[in-house]
Amino acid sequence: MVITCSLALITSTPILKRLHGFRCSSSLHNNKKETPLLLKFAVSGVTELLRIFSSGTTQRLDTVPYTQKGEPVVSGVDDIVDILQSDYENAYFLTGNFTSAIYAEDCSFEDPTIKFRGKGLYARNLKLLVPFFDCPSLILQQIEKAVNSEANYVLATWKLRTYLNIPWKPLISIEGSTVYDLDDDFKIIRHAESWNVSALQAIGQIFTPSFERHRD
Known about the structure:
alpha+beta
C-alpha cells in the first residue's frame, strides 16, 4: 500500500516509510521485536540513496496521479473487506491510489523495518515511491475478516514484484500479509505487514543488480 511497499525499507523518512509488518492473530499482535541498530543504519542508508536518485525525478513526482477516494459507506467489517479488495485491484501499494477515508488519522503503519503514524504521511510516502517502480505487480492471494471478542481485523495475503528505477535495476520480490486492525467505528487503526523474507534480506534485494531485467 501505502507501501508500503513491502517496501517499507524504501519508505523511511521521508521517501521511505512504507508498506507493511503484519500480525494476524492475538499472539502475533504481541510478538514485537526491536529493529536491530545495524538494520536501522541500513534503512537510513537506503533512504539517503533514494533521496539522491529522487532528485532526478522531482518533475515526475509532481505529475504522479494520486487519488484519495471519497468517504465510503461503512457499516461493518464486510464493507472494509470489499473496499480493501478494490484497493488491491488498483495495486494501491504501487499506485498510491487507496481509500484513505477508511483509515484513522493517526493510524499506525509498520513492517519488519519501520513503524510510524499518520495516514497523511503514508499517502505521501506512497506517492514518492511511485516513480521508482518499473514493471510492478501486486497480486492479492486472499483476504478475509476476523471478528472476536477482543477486536476486529482484516487479513490480506499478497505477492509483490517490481524492479526499481535506479541504475542497477534491482528486483524486489516479496510475499507478505497485512493485518488491518479496526476500531469500534470500523476505521483502520493499525496497518501491519509481515514478509516471507527478513528485513535484512529485503534490504539486500535493493543492492542486488538484476541482470534478468536487462535481458527482458
